[in-house]
Amino acid sequence: MILLLPWIPFLAAFLIMLAPREKEFLHKQIAVTSCAVNFAIVLWLIFHFHPEVPGYQFAHRYPWIPFLGIHYQVGLDGINMTLCLLHALVSFTGAIVSCWPKDRMKEYLCFYLILTGAIYGVFTALDVFQLYLFYELTLIPLYPMIVIWGSKNKAYGAMKLTLFITGGAMLALFGILILYRNLGLQSFDLLEMRKNIEILPMNPGTVHGLAGIFLVGFGVIASLWPLHSWSPIGYAAAPTSVSMLHAGVLKKMGPYLMLRLAVALLPDGVHYWANTLAVLSCVGILYAGYAAVKQQDLKFMIGFSSVSHMGYILLAIAVMNQATLSGAVLLMFSHGVMAATTFACIGFIYEQTHARGVNDFGGLAKKIPFISTCLIMASFASLGLPGFSNFVAELLIFFGSWSQYPIIVSLAIFGVFITSLYLLRMVKSVCYGAENPRWSLLHDARTIADKLPFVILLGALMLFGFWPQGLLRMIQPAVGALLS
Amino acid sequence: MDAFIFYFFGGLAAVSALAVILLRQPVRALLSLIVTMISLSVLYLSLGAPFVAMVNLIVYAGAVLVLFLFAIMLQGIGAREIDLGKRFHPAFIPGVILTISFFDFGFLKLIRRFPELHFQDVAGSARQVGKTLFTQYLLPFELVSILLILAILAAVALAKREDSA
Amino acid sequence: MMNLRYLLPEWVALGVFILLLIAEILKGDVKHPDAQNIRSFCITSLLGSILVCISTLLFLKKTGTAFGDSFIVDPLSAFFKLFFILTLFMMIPISYAFFNKRRERLETFLLILWCTLLGMFFLASANDLFVLFLCIEIITLSFYIMAAYLKHELPSIESGLKYLIIGSLASAFLVFGIALIYAAVGSTNLPVLHQAFVAHPGDRMLVLGMLFIIAGLGFKIGAVPFHLWVPDVYEGAPIPTVAFLSVGSKAAGIFVLLRLLFQVFVLTDSQRALLFSTLSALTMICGNFGALKQTSLKRLLGYSSIAHAGYLLIGFAVGYSGGITGVLYYLLAYAAANLTIFLVMAIVDRHLQSDRIEAYAGLAQRSPILGACFFIALLSLAGVPGTAGFFGKFLILLAAVHGGFLWLTLLGLVGVVVSLYYYLSVVRVIYAEEPAYDEAIPVPLSYRLTLILLVGGIFVLGLFPAPFLLGCYHTAFMLFQTPLS
């Protein structure tokens, strides 16, 4: 079952390619159905997931390139189970959002499905080569999607995004190759590497260097300051469902891969860089937050906001204990869902008005109550309001990091304050206040198809906000296994 | 003696090769080309390859003569009759006779004084070349045929004149 | 002694060539070009190349010599012969697409292609410097002709002339090197030369001769500092010529370098590493950064091919089976991607009438299949996972890291990022920009099949590399066994 996860979207993309161009409805059906099927599979996997069982569940292993010790290996533990759920949610709702009218729908859906499949590939892979392959594969559909269907500054934004993330990926590949050589195992199997890393210790210089390489390489996509500048521009330029997927899921691949490769295999190295990482993440939180305050464009604002939130996750990785890492994974989930919701709301408004300035709107709470409510709820989630899972996650991170970096945690909490500043201000100017006569024709989400994405996303946020244990019971054993 | 021949004729070959490129008039350039070929043939001779030397002369001189023709055709000299009496410098015919005599009676006699300059049936003779070409170097010999076909195809593809329309 | 049966692929190739030549002489009519004739000519060539391919496959595992030790059959030669014939097979649709309905004759072009193939086949089996040089000359001469083939268009003639002059210079280097070595050793037979190199490692004439030969071969591959001709010649020559030049000629150069460097010349690991890593670094930098500002697609592909030569040279710097496996696999991947691109270019050339990248605007809208194939091929050249190009680069960089060439690996990875910039710029033009004319570009079934074959090859090499990897490794491994009987 788990094996199908990446391949169903690929198959669907192939089917869409073959289908004739005019049958747009058929394309949309195929896309949404395949994402729905994947969603169902993920839900099935969650219900059959036993957190108390150690190791990876639903594991499969097939030889792929035996000559180099590469296998096609999949498996789920608490961490990537959570992230698969995140991706299932965001990709499904994103698929519905992708069906909002645009031209050249066929190519768009093809690229979208390839992107979705590749991300599933990253989250289920347990072989480093396979992991890297799917990781770089996700970059590819992004470029055409942003460059064709994007908005302001799309050529520049798309290229910057792709080049930055590729640069990081190349650095990570460098690290992987050195790791392969130094371990001398002739295998890319992550589990084998984990087992053998204690038996075959590498010299500390190499460990520190490798950890640094992985942290920087994956830090680019995790928008580690100062390598974050691709993010706001990229998101602003991207079409709505791409922003949803990217801010929601793709960014989380950065910390995920850090966990899998740096924390699991090279914990001493991560300890070595912990102070630097913590400081950089703190700077990122504050800098991005401050930058968000100054933005006039909603998408830029949320882009910087996502950079800021990733700072919490990176701080958690720097501290590297049970509490913070659990909080990090939970925050990955919550922030992902929240960012997706926000971009969906903004996108909905943008579709009709082609405007997204902070001051362009007003009184939308009366005009489009449903969407405004969603926007307000998402903003509150971003703030870390109790009732949403972001709160629990951030709490875990702060409590876990306090003993080690009290100053940084205080600054990070200040970052929460800055977040509330720009978000509440945004809510005020967009949803309340005088109505802007330009948008008298703005209509709300009417059909079920319109409302469904928001309901699902916000529902998930609230469900796990009131029942964080639902996710934490999966995450915590996995984090424990990671750290031992 | 060997060194003298090498440096003299090698230098002559280099100088005349340069002259081919640098001279402005095509006919003079071609004449320098002939001098280059003759110098190279002498060098081949001094290396003990009489067959190659002679073949070099025959082929290249023949080729250069053809080029001569083309040069003249391209120049499109308004062919005009020049009076027979005015064609040659008065000193030309005596000069030719003197040169030939010098060569036959002077130079050759000089050379016969140095027996080491005689070449009899050494490795570069026609017999030896033929033998090696058909035994040791048979494969390259056959491969040259492909080169020749290529040359013909090149002529057909690039140089053949097409009738308009 | 003669062992002529080892020349079976060459006999078949010669037979097909003579058949085509006679057909052209008897039936070829310049004044009234007959489409039917041209088509049957092409189909005969295709069938002929399949025959040659089959006969080559029979020799994959055999070793032996013929023609008194000047002709050798071994795994390396078998690999490259297979490579050459597959390239030729793909060249026929590219030539047909380009020359169809042009005033220049397709049949003569195909005959010249076959001559080149014969030269390449004998090159692959050359066991003698003489034969080697002659075959290189055959190949180069054909390229002079093919580059200047569009004799009514100035850029083509100019590129042919440039290639002629630079190529002659390269040949001069080669001959000089060969002369020095012959003067030192007294024989042109490769095994004998190897003995001489082993016996006198530091001999000045030998080393000098070796360096001159490497310089001459550097021209063929397009490595720095012998790369100056590449962008100019690529820009002016007709598309099929550039396709064959970028794939076939480069492979031929790499082959000769492999044969000579690892089976004849004797270099210590550090000497080889120093020489080739310098060359490789310079080449990668020059190629990748040179391509950034190009507006002509063929010129861009020229610089890109320089960059790819740089990656191949990394494999040479590393040496051993690992590095050479990477080189061989990389060649396969590079060939698949480049041939796809040139096939697309040949098909659309008539519609676009221009080489500038802007002319390709909106190609994906005018023909989705062409746009998609172009896209995938560009991704393969950039080295995106899932495609053949990635696995080739992965193998080479893996070998480099194993060999300790960390800076070179980093440079290669930076090169990937830079190359992604210019490849993606082309992708943007194809996908995002509006086409100048809206009419769809029709793609007949035969071209579709060829494109699917090529793109399928890119995916298979990228996702299921195991069998090809083993083949390349076997060939590379045999290279380092006792060479040449």
Briefly summarize what is shown:
The complex is a heterotrimer of chains A (484), B (165) and C (485). By secondary structure, chain B is mostly helical. Chain B is 75% helix and 0% strand.
Which topology of chain B does CATH recognise?
A: Four Helix Bundle (Hemerythrin (Met), subunit A)
Number of domains of chain B: 1
Number of domains of chain A: 1
- Structural class call of chain A reads mainly alpha
| Mean pLDDT metric of chain A | 88
Give the percentage of residues in beta strands of chain B: under 5%
Low-confidence stretches of chain B: none
Please state the overall shape of chain A, judged from the principal axes of the Cα atoms: globular
Major sheet of chain A: order of its strands?
Answer: 1-2
What pattern of helices and strands is seen along the backbone of chain B?
A: HHHHHHH
Overall description:
The complex is a heterotrimer of chains A (484), B (165) and C (485). Chain A contains 19 helices and 2 strands. With 484 residues, chain A is mainly α. Chain A has one domain (4-483). Chain A has a two-stranded antiparallel sheet. The model of chain A has no long low-confidence stretch (mean pLDDT 88). In chain B, α1 (2-22) runs antiparallel to α2. Chain B starts with a helix and ends in a 6-residue tail after the last helix. Chain B is 75% helix and 0% strand. Chain B has helices at residues 2-22, 26-46, 50-75, 84-87, 92-112, 126-134, 138-159. Chain C has a domain at 278-485. Chain C has helices at residues 8-27, 35-57, 75-99, 106-124, 129-147, 154-185, 190-199, 204-221, 229-236, 239-263, 269-290, 297-318, 320-352, 363-366, 368-382, 388-403, 406-432, 445-463, 466-479, and strands at 64-66, 71-73. In chain C, strands 1-2 form a two-stranded antiparallel sheet. In chain C, α9 (229-236) packs across α12 and α15 (368-382) packs parallel to α18. Chain C starts with 7 loop residues before the first helix and ends in a 6-residue tail after the last helix. Classes of the chains: A mainly alpha (484), B mainly alpha (165), C mainly alpha (485). Chains in contact: A-C, B-C.
